[in-house]
């Protein structure tokens, strides 16, 4: 009989003990490794979040400074602001545009204007005057900011301690944005904006930049994280402090049940470990995405900003290169936006920008990239097939979208848009070149009278080079004082002969070509040369006319010249140097200046009339000035537009229109000059309609000073030749 061997219990127990010991050892080793790994992950996660939070706080401070810097730059480097603070009635303008806006404006709550000596001429806080001197409210950092702004050309923005805590303050000299306007740097006024770091502002920053528990302290928090708020000298005037969030530690606590289960089951352990990592990475990525959003989006409108547009254009270029699609870039400039800002203030202007952004976002096709480039400029990008782009017809859609009225706080506002378009097929053009072409097309659109869309053509580059060359020639001509002057006589309608002359500019460059005023006058206006050109025309005209006793002199001026606060003084100096009686001079302006810049025009006209100079309204009958406007400006003469004279030969009702136009002027007791008279019939008609002065080829073409003298003052011919030279 065979026997069966029984198992040895001792061996079995030993084996179990060994296996158990092995598992326990492995478990302990794995547990130690896991615990060490979790500890490292937790510490690393906490450290990464601390670094992110510190970086986010630095970005928040930087964003605050950049916003305030941009706001000060927009308000200080502004032709109107420079003119107003240097005028006699600056107090009302400064208070209306800067003082009262401190009550509810989100970017600043304090506005201060100081003169060249550092004396405050206006200080407002939260919509009310700020009593007392600046030193009673702020420490010495204010003086340092003003000194820094006075020493350089940039905006100085730093933190300053006030009697209410810590404020972010910036300062800049109030100067014209036009680089050709000269000014005395030592006499500039300075504009200061400040934003108090109150609890609501700190809470908003904490929300925007994911800084939970953010507070403003006088001293750093030893147990948490801090960012110093430094003054212009680098000395801290306060601290942003917030508790450490410790996402790794909190995630570890949250994951404890999973980790306990993982100690028994390795799969669950690894899953728990992955969960911890996921939570940590998700939190870090959320903070990174938020910071990135702020870097690539416009804070006011929520659209992409210029940096975001460039990044998107890079992606569109890559996509178009692979697919052969066409990228269309539309640059948009809002027509009439400046009038909204000037008329209702920057607060309403900002609300209009938000409304425009919202309307574009809802009305543009899917896939369109919409960006705000700054001010009132927007951009829209769409990459599609040529057929899809033609169907979308973005330029037309943009025009229609912005042509509808906007309701801003109960105000009905009408604007329009000028659009410049550039296209790149198959990614052939780099983003920078596409932007350049769209910018040139937009300039063309604005120069064409606005409210139009223009697509870039290669010939535009030729035109740009031609205009640049022509501008250089004009600049050299003015530097050499070579602009020519001719004079067209004005005659009495009753046949008593010549009663005055109108000075007309002529430009003949060195190549012998004659360039008309309809070309070089707008060129001078665009290039900032109009003041120099106007002074040379006025000087030469007055010198020549000084030798013609009894004759009046009429000189046309550009609306841009009337915006120059020194224009009246310059005219009076020219008259004094030539010993020319102011009562003999008539300055002619067009209706457009009465509508676009009525306040500036009224100040200039008032100063000229006070000196005895007459003011004539040119091109009367072709514009849109109201009777009230005509009365308010008190014109000494009106010149009937030449188009009304020409129409006498072609239109049946032209005579009635002419008579009604002249009758309106006569009803206002304003004498009327008819220009462009070429036939006896035209002369008879305007004479019977009530014109007392006539001008045109029927009587004389424009003459040089020498020829006019030879015709009307032969005894003074040598004197005029000397004066004109």
Produce the secondary structure layout.
Elements: H1 9-76, H2 79-85, H3 90-99, E1 110-114, E2 120-125, E3 128-129, H4 134-137, H5 141-151, E4 156-162, E5 165-173, E6 190-196, H6 199-208, E7 215-217, E8 225-230, E9 236-242, H7 247-254, H8 256-264, H9 266-296, H10 306-323, E10 326-335, H11 337-344, H12 346-363, E11 369-374, E12 377-384, H13 386-392, H14 394-403, E13 406-408, E14 411-413, E15 416-425, H15 431-447, E16 453-455, H16 459-479, E17 484-492, E18 498-506, H17 517-527, H18 530-545, E19 552-556, H19 559-563, H20 567-577, E20 585-590, H21 592-596, H22 598-610, E21 614-620, H23 627-633, E22 637-640, H24 642-646, H25 654-667, E23 672-674, H26 680-689, E24 693-694, H27 705-712, H28 717-724
Parallel strand pairs: 15-16, 18-19, 19-20, 20-21, 21-22, 22-23, 23-24
Antiparallel strand pairs: 1-2, 1-6, 2-3, 4-5, 5-6, 7-9, 8-9, 10-12, 10-15, 11-12, 13-14, 17-18, 17-24
Helix pairs in contact: 1-7, 1-9, 7-9, 8-9, 11-12, 12-14, 16-17, 18-20, 18-28, 20-22, 27-28
Mean pLDDT: 85
The residue fraction in helices comes out at 40-55%
Number of domains: 4
Low-pLDDT segments:
1-8, 720-725
Which sequence of strands runs across the widest sheet? 17-18-19-20-21-22-23-24
At the first level of CATH, the class of the largest domain is: Alpha Beta
Number of helices: 28
The main pleated sheet reads as:
8 strands, mixed, barrel
User: Helix/strand-derived class?
Assistant: alpha/beta
Distance between the termini: 150 Å
Classify the beta-strand content into a percent band. Answer: 15-25%
Q: Based on Cα principal axes, name the global outline.
A: elongated
Please give the number of β-strands: 24
Gyration radius, rounded? 37 Å
**What is the CATH fold-level name of the largest domain?**
TIM Barrel
């Amino acid at each position: 009989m065979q026997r069966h061997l029984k198992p040895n219990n001792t061996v079995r127990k030993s084996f179990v003990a060994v296996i158990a010991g092995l598992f326990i050892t492995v478990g302990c080793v794995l547990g130690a490794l896991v615990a060490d790994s979790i500890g490292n992950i937790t510490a690393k996660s906490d450290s990464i979040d601390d670094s992110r939070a510190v970086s986010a706080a630095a970005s928040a401070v930087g964003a605050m400074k950049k916003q305030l810097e941009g706001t000060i730059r927009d308000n200080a480097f502004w032709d109107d602001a420079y003119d107003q603070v240097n005028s006699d009635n600056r107090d009302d303008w400064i208070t209306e545009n800067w003082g009262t806006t401190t009550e509810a404006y989100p970017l600043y709550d304090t506005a201060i204007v100081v003169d060249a000596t550092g004396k405050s001429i206006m200080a407002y806080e939260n919509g009310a005057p700020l009593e007392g001197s600046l030193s009673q409210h702020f420490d010495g950092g204010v003086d340092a900011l003003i000194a820094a702004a006075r020493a350089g050309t940039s905006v100085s923005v730093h933190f300053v301690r006030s009697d209410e805590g810590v404020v972010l303050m910036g300062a800049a000299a109030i100067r014209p944005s036009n680089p050709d306007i000269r000014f005395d740097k030592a006499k500039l006024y300075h504009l200061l904006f400040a934003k108090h770091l109150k609890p609501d502002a700190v809470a908003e920053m904490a929300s925007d930049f994911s800084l939970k528990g953010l507070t403003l302290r006088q001293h750093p928090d030893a147990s948490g994280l801090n960012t110093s708020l430094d003054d212009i000298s680098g000395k801290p005037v306060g601290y942003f402090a917030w508790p450490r969030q410790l996402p790794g530690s909190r995630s570890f606590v949250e994951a404890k049940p999973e980790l306990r289960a993982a100690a028994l089951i390795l799969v669950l352990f690894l899953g728990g470990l992955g969960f911890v990592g996921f939570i940590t990475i998700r939190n870090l990525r959320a903070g990174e995405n938020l910071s990135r959003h702020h870097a690539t989006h416009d804070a006011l409108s929520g659209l992409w900003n210029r940096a975001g547009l460039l990044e998107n254009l890079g992606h569109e270029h890559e996509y178009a290169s692979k697919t052969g699609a066409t990228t269309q870039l539309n640059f948009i400039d809002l027509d009439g936006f400046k009038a909204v800002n000037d008329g209702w203030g920057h607060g309403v202007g900002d609300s209009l920008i938000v409304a425009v952004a919202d309307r574009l976002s809802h009305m543009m096709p899917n896939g369109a990239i919409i960006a705000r480039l700054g001010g009132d400029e927007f951009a829209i990008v769409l990459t599609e097939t040529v057929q899809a782009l033609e169907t979308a017809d973005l330029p037309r859609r943009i025009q229609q979208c912005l042509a509808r009225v906007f309701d801003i706080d109960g105000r009905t506002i009408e604007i329009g848009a000028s659009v410049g378009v550039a296209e790149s097929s198959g990614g052939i053009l780099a983003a920078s070149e596409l932007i350049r072409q769209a910018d040139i097309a937009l300039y063309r659109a604005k120069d064409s009278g606005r409210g139009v869309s223009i697509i870039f053509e290669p010939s535009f580059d030729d035109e740009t080079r031609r205009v640049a060359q022509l501008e250089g020639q004009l600049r050299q001509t003015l530097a050499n004082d070579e602009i020519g002057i001719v004079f067209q006589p004005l005659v009495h309608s009753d046949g008593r002969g010549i009663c005055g002359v109108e000075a007309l500019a002529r430009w003949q460059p060195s190549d012998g070509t004659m360039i008309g005023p309809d070309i070089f006058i707008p060129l001078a206006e665009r290039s900032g040369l109009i003041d120099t050109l106007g002074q040379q025309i006025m000087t030469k005209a007055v010198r020549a006319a000084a030798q013609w006793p009894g004759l009046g002199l009429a000189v046309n001026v550009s609306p841009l010249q009337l915006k120059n606060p020194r224009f009246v003084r310059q005219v009076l100096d020219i008259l004094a140097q030539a010993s020319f009686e102011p009562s003999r001079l008539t300055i002619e302006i067009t209706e457009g200046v009465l509508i676009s810049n009525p306040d500036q025009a009224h100040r200039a006209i008032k100063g000229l009339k006070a000196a005895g100079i007459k003011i004539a309204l040119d091109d009367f009958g072709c514009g849109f000035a109201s009777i009230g406007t005509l009365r308010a400006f008190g014109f000494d003469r009106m010149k009937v537009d030449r188009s009304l004279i020409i129409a006498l030969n072609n239109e049946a009702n032209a005579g009635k229109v002419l008579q009604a136009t002249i009758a309106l002027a006569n009803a206002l007791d304003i004498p009327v000059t008819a220009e462009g008279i070429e036939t006896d019939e035209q002369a008879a008609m305007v004479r019977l309609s009530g014109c007392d002065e006539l001008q045109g080829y029927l009587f004389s073409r424009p003459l040089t000073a020498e020829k006019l003298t030879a015709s009307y003052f032969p005894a003074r011919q040598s004197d005029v030749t000397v004066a004109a030279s």
